[in-house]
């Protein structure tokens, strides 16, 4: 996928993703930018003909969950549980 295609996807899905970012975090502008920067990085995996929104939504969700876990001190708990589960 070329950068032009990413620009078209931003034009088509940008408002939807921005509204989604508003629901996820107070830092909506940062998350919005991160989402499309990641889309540029992963554009070789993005198929413009196969519902790009289904690709962009998880890209937006993952950083917000990581931030939430860090802010609430849950990273250590999750890592500890993962370690315990492997024994």
UniProtKB/TrEMBL annotation:
<feature type="domain" description="RNA polymerase sigma-70 region 2">
    <location>
        <begin position="10"/>
        <end position="60"/>
    </location>
</feature>
<dbReference type="InterPro" id="IPR007627">
    <property type="entry name" value="RNA_pol_sigma70_r2"/>
</dbReference>
<protein>
    <submittedName>
        <fullName>Sigma-70 family RNA polymerase sigma factor</fullName>
    </submittedName>
</protein>
<dbReference type="Pfam" id="PF04542">
    <property type="entry name" value="Sigma70_r2"/>
</dbReference>
<dbReference type="InterPro" id="IPR013325">
    <property type="entry name" value="RNA_pol_sigma_r2"/>
</dbReference>
